[in-house]
């Protein structure tokens, strides 16, 4: 009999510090109206002193374990989606594992930028399907504001920090019905971080590390690519658009989310939107939206969820889940 994975519990954690659009107006030549009209963002959370991707991820993981009614001793796999690890090594997954006190189990990071949530979910799902692992913590955690160029108005208004987590457990029934992962490295010039360990840090503040994005070109690519992947997901599962109860999209831009909902002929009241409160939290964003939707009582057991994301790489992916 086929082994599936199902979501047993979710959690999330956001830093206390909030930067509103009014705060951004004091930093760069921008205004609340432009940010809201072009992106849908009203505010973003920013990690404070002592907060890192692993501390945020640990807090989210503890809430997901609590929601699943289990402890860290019950899990046998940790997969963390992050582009902003505390350190090059140990991995953020290992740091979170240390915080949870569950030595010995498998722990790894996955770097797929804003698609990190879907990539991490897919990896954990396949490990569980293999029969080798029974209970996994899937975490998306980011501190993107640590690599934002606060003088660049075209990017600094977009990003925020946060973490999300879910417990996936082996089950006789889905659960995760399918995941779909893609990447195309040919567009690296449109969205990237300027420096790295191997290519060399610069003798500048933060080692010269900044996010650079040709927003308009990324936007067009995101809209067409996400349109394609939602179709691919429906076809793979032999489902109609009307079979989807909730769209839980990556939260980069409200206009991208609306365009994807339109492709699915979905009303916006079937779409979970958190971009207004969180900004783009990269690998954390889909999980943050899912956790909020579950805790607010919108998403109920048995609902069919379509998760999707697009990000740097480019990478993109989707997951179809019976919650
Ligand atoms: N405040 C005010 N004006 C701004 C601004 C800001 N924060 N940022 C850019 N502008 C200006 C530009 O300078 C430009 O001015 P110009 O016409 O005088 O040159 C104008 O607004 C339009 O810029 P453009 O980049 O074409 O805007 P846009 O409508 O494409 O919106 C983004 C910009 C970044 C919001 C949008 O392109 C986007 O969301 N891109 C995709 C992001 C994404 O999904 N990333 C993938 C995952 S990380």
TrEMBL record:
<keyword id="KW-0012">Acyltransferase</keyword>
<feature type="active site">
    <location>
        <position position="114"/>
    </location>
</feature>
<comment type="similarity">
    <text>Belongs to the thiolase-like superfamily. FabH family.</text>
</comment>
<feature type="domain" description="Beta-ketoacyl-[acyl-carrier-protein] synthase III N-terminal">
    <location>
        <begin position="108"/>
        <end position="185"/>
    </location>
</feature>
<comment type="subunit">
    <text>Homodimer.</text>
</comment>
<feature type="domain" description="Beta-ketoacyl-[acyl-carrier-protein] synthase III C-terminal">
    <location>
        <begin position="236"/>
        <end position="323"/>
    </location>
</feature>
<keyword id="KW-0443">Lipid metabolism</keyword>
<protein>
    <recommendedName>
        <fullName>Beta-ketoacyl-[acyl-carrier-protein] synthase III</fullName>
        <ecNumber>2.3.1.180</ecNumber>
    </recommendedName>
</protein>
<keyword id="KW-0275">Fatty acid biosynthesis</keyword>
<comment type="function">
    <text>Catalyzes the condensation reaction of fatty acid synthesis by the addition to an acyl acceptor of two carbons from malonyl-ACP. Catalyzes the first condensation reaction which initiates fatty acid synthesis and may therefore play a role in governing the total rate of fatty acid production. Possesses both acetoacetyl-ACP synthase and acetyl transacylase activities. Its substrate specificity determines the biosynthesis of branched-chain and/or straight-chain of fatty acids.</text>
</comment>
<keyword id="KW-0444">Lipid biosynthesis</keyword>
<keyword id="KW-0963">Cytoplasm</keyword>
<dbReference type="InterPro" id="IPR004655">
    <property type="entry name" value="FabH"/>
</dbReference>
<keyword id="KW-0511">Multifunctional enzyme</keyword>
<feature type="region of interest" description="ACP-binding">
    <location>
        <begin position="251"/>
        <end position="255"/>
    </location>
</feature>
<dbReference type="InterPro" id="IPR013751">
    <property type="entry name" value="ACP_syn_III_N"/>
</dbReference>
<keyword id="KW-0276">Fatty acid metabolism</keyword>
<comment type="pathway">
    <text>Lipid metabolism; fatty acid biosynthesis.</text>
</comment>
<dbReference type="InterPro" id="IPR013747">
    <property type="entry name" value="ACP_syn_III_C"/>
</dbReference>
<dbReference type="GO" id="GO:0033818">
    <property type="term" value="F:beta-ketoacyl-acyl-carrier-protein synthase III activity"/>
</dbReference>
<dbReference type="Pfam" id="PF08545">
    <property type="entry name" value="ACP_syn_III"/>
</dbReference>
<dbReference type="Pfam" id="PF08541">
    <property type="entry name" value="ACP_syn_III_C"/>
</dbReference>
<keyword id="KW-0808">Transferase</keyword>
<feature type="active site">
    <location>
        <position position="250"/>
    </location>
</feature>
<dbReference type="InterPro" id="IPR016039">
    <property type="entry name" value="Thiolase-like"/>
</dbReference>
<feature type="active site">
    <location>
        <position position="280"/>
    </location>
</feature>
